[in-house]
Amino acid sequence: MSAEVLSQSEIDALLSALSTGEMNADELKKEVTEKKVKVYDFKRALRFSKDQVRSLTRIHENFSRLLTTYFSAQLRTYVQITVGSADQVPYEEFIRSIPKMTILNVFEVPPLDGRILLEVNPNIAYAIMDRLLGGRGASINKVENLTEIETKIMSNIFEKAFENLREAWDSVADIDPMLAEFEVNPQFLQMVSPNETVVVISLNTQIGETSGMINICIPHVVLEPIIPKLSAHYWMQNVKKESAPQSVAAIERKIRHADLPVIAELGSTDISIQDFLMLDLGDVIQLDQTIGKPLTIKVAGTPKFTGQAGKVNKKIGIQIINAIQGGSDDDE
């Protein structure tokens, strides 16, 4: 617990008050020993620990970097997206905090239950759309009059952008984000009950000269199955597991089961472009390989053996005669 530090003048005044009787030392002790009452608002139930919120912040810092790369490639302009804050609030409070008309993308994230909301400030949304249509990235706010074409463009770009959440979340859950609903009026959107606790991750977004916010609203019901994975203990365990080196025997076992292409070359030759263009059915190409000369057997494209072609039961086969020393083309 942090203690308040008094200045020298405050200490002198306190000692003077005690010596003159203006203050009673017993009353001071009584105040200290009294139980402190902390106000608790049941409408703002805190269902996530600070540790879990920090883990969510770390996950979405990675997501913001992926979004920066994605939008930079799509818009070909300066884009900067960073995590501004991560808070847990009632769903009703979040809805009141966003504009009355805005861009709302509702995503399902199977196999997790519930839905996640991606709210994009209209200034950012229009700057993105203007840039996609060949403009300079100017922003106008007429979200209440979206045309069908504008709605389709916006929903497509944000649906593809949100696919990056799969990679950002792969350490805690294997999800498959899918756009379920596109809306512009928050009052028509009721994902969860008004008092349901949600985590809101706010992303500071800069598109060219336009700035605004992108908010990700995640209800408690979505995160409930993976809450244990949001603890620092889980992350530290994962780091230890990933850093543990594999044994030589385990690596050898994996290598032994790797597939390698094996090719026996019957021969080769060089022809001119003119001759190649004149080839037709029934034509014969003479190879530089004589019948009595052993064939070269290549493993993964590298000459390794010489062999003799033949027949095994009803299939063509090749018998290995010698190993090529060094396993390179120079050794043929």
UniProtKB/TrEMBL annotation:
Q: What is its main location?
A: other
Q: Which InterPro entries match?
A: CheC-like_sf (IPR028976), Flag_FliM (IPR001689), FliN-like_C (IPR001543), SpoA-like_sf (IPR036429)
Protein's name in the database: Flagellar motor switch protein FliM
Q: Does the keyword DNA damage apply?
A: no
**Which ranges carry the Flagellar motor switch protein FliN-like C-terminal domain?**
254-324
Q: Which NCBIfam families match?
A: fliM_switch (TIGR01397)
Q: Where is the protein localized? A: Bacterial flagellum basal body; Cell membrane
What is the organism field in this record? Answer: Litchfieldia luteola
> What is the membrane topology here?
Peripheral membrane protein
The family this protein is said to belong to: Belongs to the FliM family.
**SUPFAM superfamilies membership:** CheC-like, Surface presentation of antigens (SPOA)
**One Pfam family for this entry, by name?**
FliM
Keywords carried by this UniProt record: Bacterial flagellum, Cell membrane, Cell projection, Chemotaxis, Cilium, Flagellar rotation, Flagellum, Membrane
